[in-house]
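Form P-L/3: holo structure prediction, ligand S-adenosylmethionine.
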Amino acid sequence: MTTLTTAPLAPLLDRLFEQADAASAATASAVSDLSDEEQGRLMRSKTDYRDFYGRMKDIPLAVSRETGALLYMLARSCGARTIVEFGTSLGISTLHLAAALRDNGGGHLITSEFEPSKVARARDNLAAGGLIDLVEIREGDALQTLSVDLPETVDLLLLDGAKALYPEILSLLESRLRPGAFIVADNADYSPDYLARVRSPGKGYMSTPFAEDVELSMRIN
Ligand SMILES: C[S@@+](CC[C@H](N)C(=O)[O-])C[C@H]1O[C@@H](n2cnc3c(N)ncnc32)[C@H](O)[C@@H]1O
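OUTPUT (holo model):
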């Protein structure tokens, strides 16, 4: 038995994923006044992401169930004790990662979110899942909140906030990633700079696309 597959977390995640599936229509309507080009531009912007995500402040935008399971398994298999997450939203990915920490015997997960209402909902979900004691939610722009007070070493990094900032967030964390640390980047196709970096020989990573839209990388040294 695992924390992920038993109560209270398993039924909570079923409910949250159902809500996330039901909200997918709302995602389209939140940006329906924008052309496809403008949506693409905002997704890739290093400056206008706040407006873009402000439109989505009531929408979960969660990882898929498959990516959630992958996160749990990766964190378990590398024996993760310290995890950093960029982009908390309602905490669905955070719940998977914190469950792995619990089953690894404990640890610390730092996650970052700038929408205050999402921070409050994530906190409630983590409390309902019995995992809040393992998680520190840093409210504000991750460019600031993840630039200070980092753990000495990080075992796993999840990138799931504004896609254009993946290279900057990786730079903030890079010196803390231990050899063998995993970096999971959701929807990394929107961040070509990031993909070029982690796939480039000699930059210290081994990297491969995984499933539909996930880039899985490992720190080599
Ligand atoms: C795709 S959602 C995260 C989903 C979450 N990982 C999950 O699976 O449940 C991205 C979230 O990142 C937040 N975000 C985007 N850019 C951010 C930034 N620079 N700093 C903090 N939060 C950010 C957005 O408000 C949004 O809630």
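COMMENT: The two ends are 34 Å apart (CA to CA).
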